[in-house]
Amino acid sequence: MSDYLPTIGLEIHVELATQTKMFCSSKNDSNEKRPNVNICPVCLGYPGTLPVINQEAVRSVLRVGLAVDGEVADYTEFDRKNYFYPDIPKGYQISQYKNPLVSGGELMGVKLTRIHLEEDTAKSLHNENSKLKIENSLLDFNRAGVPLMELVTEPVIKTATEASDFARELQLLLKYLNVSGANMEKGEMRVEANISVSNQQPTTNNQRLGTKVEVKNLNSFKVVEKAIKFEMKRQIEILEQGERVVQETRGWDEKKEVTFPQRLKESAHDYRYFPDPDLPELFVAEIPDFAPEALRRAMPELPWEKRERYKRDFRLKEGDIEIYVRQPEWGRLLEEVAEILGNRDLVQLTSNYITSDLKTPVSARSLAEVVKMISAGEISSRGAKDILKIIQEKGGEPRAIANEQNLIQESNKEVLEKIAKEVLRENPGAPIDFLVGQAMKATKGNANPQVLKEIFIKIL
Ligand code: MN
């Protein structure tokens, strides 16, 4: 069997969380359950209406572009992408063709082609009305005209995992920038993968592209991975039989876990793109609000910056760092505790308790107190777990709980030495672990076993 080189490129659509829609003042609310309430003549596509550009949407895309080190356009424009579909009644989608807002950039080592801005379509609901006895489709225009950011990667991804990792990192970035909820189940982030497999010899620029198949509507990271794996296997099998892969768009069948043909792919010129005469050309560089320096200054800490900082300042295990990067609320707790403790050697210990013992957040002050008590040998690790459990269930102060529950360990060396000597007298020549056990028994389990052991080693 010859070797096959898979090539994957991603196209990701993201609904931006702006107050209003892309070209009108209708509310943009992805949580609205009642159909067709956030609508107006503009987003319904009535003839004679005029679109107005939503600045916040442009700003959001520029911020994403700067975060991934893309090149922000000096000049941009909106184009009409013409096609007929029931969910786009004006007969075209306003998008960007030749002059996207952002070109290039990189995320997770994957080069980006472009990031542009367009409008979402209405939502078709097929056979949703049980009262109708015929096959039917309903249209909900709440989504029509919602600002959509489209990000396209270069075809440089080689594995299904790399693709889903990329999508995960993008989702994280969008959340950090607060530009989208980016919830895949809700359709706020929609992934399409272009997949080809080639057994050809590399060309001069080291490219070996096979026939591209586009898989649409991948609505979770798991599905992204499964669909790409399936499609790679399917294409290799076709090539193995000496046949040719058909260039087409395929969907993902959730139940059967297979891709299935949807339609033959149109080429770009079928859309008859042309600049929308209703919208002004944008000279981005001339709009003060969009100045890259200003947008950069207002940028929050980005996921990869946070990873670096946690590694550098806290020397945490990589797995722990990922937890805090993905769940910033826990990261904030860790940082507050670290600040109170003022000792970076205790941060990993703190992290161990956060990751294994906390289901609901506790106050930083309480957690810091617990960590202090463990590191001073006042309580055992078991005791710390019990205290944290009680705090989460009914609240309370760590020290008060420790006293109440009899969790304070005897660490006083003089007291423990006296006990150790007694145990030794009764058990001459016994091994150390046995001696420690006897001493623990004598103190009804209240002694600090570490300190006891040290004392026995010293005496012997
Ligand atoms: Mn698009």
Description:
This protein has 460 residues and is an alpha+beta fold. The protein has helices at 55-67, 160-176, 221-240, 292-297, 303-314, 318-326, 328-341, 347-357, 364-375, 381-394, 398-404, 413-426, 432-442, 449-459; strands spanning 5-15, 71-72, 75-76, 79-82, 92-95, 102-103, 106-107, 110-119, 123-126, 137-140, 147-153, 189-198, 213-218, 248-253, 258-264, 274-275, 282-283. It has three domains: 5-297, no CATH class; 303-404, no CATH class; 413-459. It is built from 14 helices and 17 strands. The strands form four sheets. Strands 1, 2, 6, 7, 8, 11, 12, 13, 14 and 15 form a ten-stranded mixed beta sheet that branches. It has a three-stranded antiparallel beta sheet with strand order 5-4-16, with no helix packed on it. Helix 9 (364-375) runs antiparallel to helix 10. The longest helix is centred in the middle third of the chain and has 20 residues, at 221-240. The site of manganese (II) ion (MN) has 3 residues, from loops.
